[in-house]
Specification:
alpha+beta, 1 helix, about 25% helix, elongated
């Protein structure tokens, strides 16, 4: 899902954030950053928890170290 906020675009499917500098010179390309997961402004706290914290909490409850396995 592609979400636009003025000079900011968030692509939740591809996990990317694109920023266009409003003061950039003509022809300057936007900056794009890619992440494992990107959440839009309309996501709910439970969605962030389920994606980020739940796997760590479940591993701790199973007796493993609480270290994140995301690298």
């Amino acid at each position: 899902m592609l979400i636009s906020y003025g000079s900011l675009q968030i692509d939740e499917v591809r996990g990317s954030v694109t920023v266009q500098n409003p003061n950039a010179s003509q022809g300057e390309p936007p900056k794009q950053f890619t992440f494992d997961t990107v959440f839009g402004a309309d996501c709910k706290q439970v969605d962030v928890y389920n994606e980020v914290a739940r796997p760590i909490v479940e591993s701790v409850l199973e007796g493993y170290n609480g270290k994140s396995f995301i690298e």
